[in-house]
C-alpha cells in the first residue's frame, strides 16, 4: 500500500502538474486572444457604424444639393427680373402717349416692338402676370392701395382696377399687384 | 527493472497523453482564435478604409457643392439677361429717331428713361459692355462682320466701328460685339 501509494504519487503529481500548467497556458492564451478579439471587434463595429453613417450622409448631401441646385435654377434671374419690371411699366406708360407725327409714329412702333420683345423674354423666363382685374382680392398677391364702394358691377372684395401690374416668377411673387378694391 | 519499467510506464504514458491532449487543445484554441482575430481584423481594416474614403468624399462633395453654388449665383440670370439684350439694342435704335412734335418728345423722353433704367439694372446685375471701338480686335469678344482698309487713323487689326454692342456677365461673354475691323 505504501509502495502502491508511492507508485501512484509521482504519476498523480506529474499529471496534476501538467494539467495545471496546460490549463494555465490555455487560460492565458484564451484570455489574451479574447481581449484582442474584443478590442478589434469593438473597433470593427465602430468603423462599420461610422462608415454606414458617412454613406447615409453622402446620400443626404446629394439629395439636399440636387434640391438646392434645382431651387437656384428654378428662381434663376429673380433679382435682375425684379429690377427690370419697372422697364415694363414705363414702356407701357410711354405707349399711352398719343402721337400723329410720322417720326413719332415710327418711334412708337419701335417702342411697341421693344415692349413685345421684353414681355416675351420675361414669359420665357417663367414670369407671369398676377391675375387681378375682376378677381377676388387676395392679400398674398394683391396690395390694396385704395378702396371704392362695392356696387352691382363690383362686388365686395373684388379688384376693380389695377394701378401697377404684379408679377410672379414661377409660384414666387416678384411684386404684388397694386390694386383698388371694392369695399 | 521490469517493475521499475512498469512503474515508470504509466507515469510516462499519462504524462504523454495529457501533454498530447493539452497540446491539441492549445492548437485548436489558438487556431480558432487566430482565424477569428484575422477575419475580424480584416473587416475592421476594411471598414476603417471605407469610412476614411467616405469621410474624404464628404469633404470633396462639400467643396464641389460650394463651388457649384457660387458659380450658379455668380452667373444668375444669364439666360434672361441674354434674351433681354435686344431690348437694349432696339431702345437705342428707337432713340435715334428725331422728333419735334410735343407728344413725340414726351414719348422719347419716356423711352430715354426706360433705356437708362434698363442699363442701370443690367449694370447692377454685373453686366458690362465689351470695349470695342478703337481697341485691338480680340476674337474672344469681337465678331468681325466686315473689314475696311487700314489707314493712319485706323491701324491694322483695330475695331473701327461697332455694329452691335457686345456684353459680358462678369467675365463670361453673353454676346460678342459685332464689329468692323481695319485690315
Explained architecture:
- 2 copies of one chain form a homodimer.
- Chain A has 183 residues and is α+β, with helices and mostly antiparallel strands.
- Chain A is 62% helix and 16% strand.
- Chain A is built from 3 helices and 6 strands.
- A 3-stranded antiparallel sheet of chain A has the order 1-4-5.
- In chain A, a hairpin with a 2-residue loop joins strand 4 (167-169) and strand 5 (172-175).
- The longest helix of chain A has 73 residues, at 2-74.
- The radius of gyration of chain A is 43 Å and the shape is rod-shaped.
- Chains A and B meet through helix 1, helix 2 and helix 3 of A and helix 1, helix 2 and helix 3 of B.
Task: Give the secondary structure arrangement, pairings included.
The structure is a homodimer of 183-residue chains.
Chain A lengths: L1 H73 L3 H17 L7 H23 L2 E3 L12 E7 L10 E6 L2 E3 L2 E4 L1 E6 L1
Parallel strand pairs in A: 2-6
Antiparallel strand pairs in A: 1-4, 3-6, 4-5
Helix pairs in contact in A: 2-3
Summarize it.
The structure is a homodimer of 183-residue chains. Chain A has 183 residues and is α+β, with helices and mostly antiparallel strands. Chain A has two domains: 1-74; 78-182, Head domain of nucleotide exchange factor GrpE (Nucleotide Exchange Factor Grpe, Chain A, domain 2), CATH 2.30.22.
List keywords for this structure.
homodimer; about 180 residues; alpha+beta; Nucleotide Exchange Factor Grpe, Chain A, domain 2; 2 domains; three-stranded antiparallel β-sheet; three-stranded mixed β-sheet; GrpE_head (chains A, B); coiled coil (chains A, B); cytoplasm (chains A, B); Protein GrpE (chains A, B); GrpE (chains A, B)
Amino acid at each position: 500500500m505504501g509502495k502502491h501509494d508511492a507508485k501512484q504519487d509521482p504519476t498523480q503529481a506529474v499529471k496534476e502538474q501538467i494539467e495545471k500548467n496546460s490549463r494555465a497556458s490555455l487560460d492565458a492564451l484564451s484570455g489574451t486572444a479574447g481581449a484582442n478579439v474584443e478590442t478589434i471587434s469593438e473597433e470593427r463595429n465602430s468603423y462599420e457604424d461610422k462608415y454606414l453613417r458617412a454613406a447615409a450622409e453622402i446620400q443626404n448631401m446629394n439629395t439636399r444639393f440636387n434640391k438646392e441646385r434645382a431651387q437656384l435654377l428654378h428662381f434663376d434671374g429673380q433679382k435682375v427680373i425684379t429690377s427690370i419690371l419697372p422697364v415694363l411699366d414705363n414702356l407701357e406708360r410711354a405707349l399711352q402717349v398719343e402721337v400723329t407725327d410720322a417720326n413719332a409714329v415710327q418711334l412708337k412702333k419701335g417702342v411697341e416692338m421693344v415692349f413685345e420683345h421684353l414681355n416675351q423674354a420675361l414669359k420665357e423666363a417663367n414670369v407671369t402676370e398676377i391675375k387681378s382685374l375682376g378677381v377676388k382680392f387676395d392679400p398674398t398677391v394683391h396690395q390694396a392701395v385704395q378702396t371704392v364702394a362695392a356696387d352691382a358691377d363690383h362686388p365686395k372684395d373684388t379688384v376693380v382696377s389695377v394701378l401697377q401690374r404684379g408679377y410672379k416668377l414661377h409660384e414666387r411673387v416678384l411684386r404684388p399687384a397694386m390694386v383698388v378694391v371694392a369695399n
